[in-house]
Amino acid sequence: MIRKIIKIDEEKCNGCGDCIEACHEGAIKIIDGKARLVRDDYCDGLGDCLPVCITGAITFEEREAEAYDEKAVLLSKQKTSNKSCVSGDKDVTSKVRQWPIQVKLVSPNASYLADSNLVIAADCTAYAYADFHRDFLKSSIVLIACPKLDDIDYSEKLALILQKNNIKKITVVRMEVPCCTGIENATKKALQKSGRIIPWQIITISTDGKILTK
Prior knowledge:
Helices cover 27% and strands 22% of the residues. It is globular, with a radius of gyration of 18 Å. By secondary structure, it is an alpha/beta fold. It is built from 6 helices and 9 strands, in the order E-H-E-E-E-H-E-H-H-E-H-E-H-E-E. It has helices at 18-22, 70-87, 125-128, 132-136, 154-164, 181-194; strands at 2-8, 28-31, 34-37, 58-64, 117-122, 141-145, 169-175, 200-205, 211-212. The chain has 2 domains: 2-64, Alpha-Beta Plaits; 92-212, 3-Layer(aba) Sandwich (Rossmann fold). Strands 6-5-7-8-9 form a 5-stranded mixed β-sheet, with helices on both faces. Strands 1-4 form a two-stranded antiparallel ribbon. Strands 2-3 form a two-stranded antiparallel ribbon. Strand 2 (28-31) and strand 3 (34-37) form a beta hairpin.
């Protein structure tokens, strides 16, 4: 497929590694002293690495490339996390970027929603999946809810949020249990009610804290 993806000019690259820290997906590595894009399917095309490159070595281009595979990225991070936990290397910094986070408390007019990546998550996911903050919240706004315990139709509020804000993409994070179907269905209804076309995907977490692939 033809899509937007980063391009690295190795002649301009000084090998500082700042882009690696900025790339949440692990698409860039230092090889022979130069930054290189090692996985097309790990690059989401959002360009978080561009602003940190002091030499201007990173730009966008449109070319034939594999589609961005967020599930593959998350599975790779999970494997890395398991290794890190064994060695005692843990990042325990909160990645929450706004408050409140409950769907029913968030105002559709909140400024932090503008031009954001949106994570709509079931309450239990952050407890079941140990690296929830690191893997889902670094560059996203999070809205949480429990379709089983909360007596509310989330689709109305979510539709307003989508109508009033230029949401770039939506990631629904749910548990594998049947009651979590509610948060998935509410998001689908909200998308239909909003009339917006927004890229979205569903990530399912198992009860033993693993990402399930479809």
